[in-house]
């Protein structure tokens, strides 16, 4: 697999990070943006490397559940985003404290990473450089996290609370597409 193919693969793989970050950006998370990007980059760098060292049995087990896990996380956050649009400011702040905590972000980033684990495993068998693979995926995940956080924040400032409902709806649609595959 050449470098251009790795870049394209990384863009596709990092798209769920973009979606999730867009939802986080629509919430009041500005003071946590650096923490979010750093944790996503660290996890997105590490998980493909771990995938390189996982055996065939574990890979086939995770593969059968990766669409479900990824879809449930996206749908769950989509529902959370929609519900939070109707919460009081205090209730939103309490929820955001957990989701933007290091523990909360680690759980989210790990939950969004089963596909990276499988890609790391399969490309490791194909002889792709582990550090090159992990670095490219981490780069696009960091870039997409930043873009999603800033875009979600900007859109919310322009359109108010409605953007949270829209962002949540987009996450739910992406969850369905993730689970069922592209409709076309």
TrEMBL record:
<keyword id="KW-0472">Membrane</keyword>
<feature type="transmembrane region" description="Helical">
    <location>
        <begin position="95"/>
        <end position="113"/>
    </location>
</feature>
<protein>
    <recommendedName>
        <fullName>Manganese efflux pump MntP</fullName>
    </recommendedName>
</protein>
<keyword id="KW-1133">Transmembrane helix</keyword>
<feature type="transmembrane region" description="Helical">
    <location>
        <begin position="6"/>
        <end position="27"/>
    </location>
</feature>
<feature type="transmembrane region" description="Helical">
    <location>
        <begin position="133"/>
        <end position="150"/>
    </location>
</feature>
<keyword id="KW-1003">Cell membrane</keyword>
<dbReference type="InterPro" id="IPR003810">
    <property type="entry name" value="Mntp/YtaF"/>
</dbReference>
<feature type="transmembrane region" description="Helical">
    <location>
        <begin position="64"/>
        <end position="83"/>
    </location>
</feature>
<feature type="transmembrane region" description="Helical">
    <location>
        <begin position="162"/>
        <end position="181"/>
    </location>
</feature>
<feature type="transmembrane region" description="Helical">
    <location>
        <begin position="34"/>
        <end position="58"/>
    </location>
</feature>
<keyword id="KW-0812">Transmembrane</keyword>
<dbReference type="Pfam" id="PF02659">
    <property type="entry name" value="Mntp"/>
</dbReference>
